[in-house]
Amino acid sequence: MYEIRATAGFDAAHYLLNYEGACARMHGHTWTVEAAVTGSELDESELLMDFHDLRKLLREVIESFDHNCLNDLDAFSELSPTSENIAAYIYRELLIKLREFPHRATLAWVSVAESRDTKAVYREEG
Predict the structure, then answer these.
(1) What CATH number has the domain bearing residue 32?
(2) Is residue 87 in some structural domain?
(3) Would you say residue 48 has pLDDT above 80?
(4) Is residue 54 situated within a structural domain?
(5) Residue 56 within a domain
(6) What is the pTM (predicted TM-score) of this model?
(7) Which one of 67, 78, 100, 125 is the catalytic residue?
(8) Is 94 among the domain residues?
(9) Which one from 14, 29, 34, 114 is the annotated catalytic residue?
(10) What are phi and psi of 26, to 5 degrees?
């Protein structure tokens, strides 16, 4: 089994709902998002999927986040923009884009880091 990963990032503000503490106030992060795809078969070029293509699709999913308040976006209008919820949202949107893209890979997981030492990972079992 092969696994490839691509990383992209964005700068955005957010505040957490139903939370007591400093993070309930608006604050910002430089977010790092990583996505991994897996598969057992390589294509004619001996690639599972081109890194460039995976990164391009990932950037398309997160482009609306950059330099925005995440709470103001439709995706988080009723959902707290925690790292966990952001990772799940990106996973589901990237899954849609990957279904429309010719490749042999399966989306394995998406991680979202709001700092160097914190990261949330979302994957779907099944």
Answers:
(1) 3.30.479.10
(2) yes
(3) yes
(4) no
(5) no
(6) 0.95
(7) 67
(8) yes
(9) 114
(10) -60, 135
Tell me the HSE value of 65 on the side-chain side, using a 13 A CA sphere: 28
Residue by residue, DSSP assigns 70-88 as GGGSGGGSSS---HHHHHH
* Radius of gyration over every alpha carbon of the chain, rounded to an integer in angstroms: 15
CA 44 – CA 124 distance, rounded (Å): 29
Can you give the residue range of the structural domain that contains 110? 2-12+21-49+64-122
Tokens at residue 90, please? 């990106």
- As a whole number of angstroms, the distance between CA 25 and CA 14 comes to 8
Given the structure tokens 């690639």, which residue do they identify?
47
User: What does the pLDDT average to over 113-124?
Assistant: 96
How many domains does the chain fold into? 1
**Residue 124 bears catalytic tag:** no
Is 103 a catalytic site residue?
Answer: no
Active-site residue (options: 23, 69, 93, 103): 23
Active site residue 23: yes
Name the band, by pLDDT with cuts 50, 70 and 90, for residue 101. Answer: confident
Q: State yes or no: pLDDT of 103 exceeds 80.
A: no
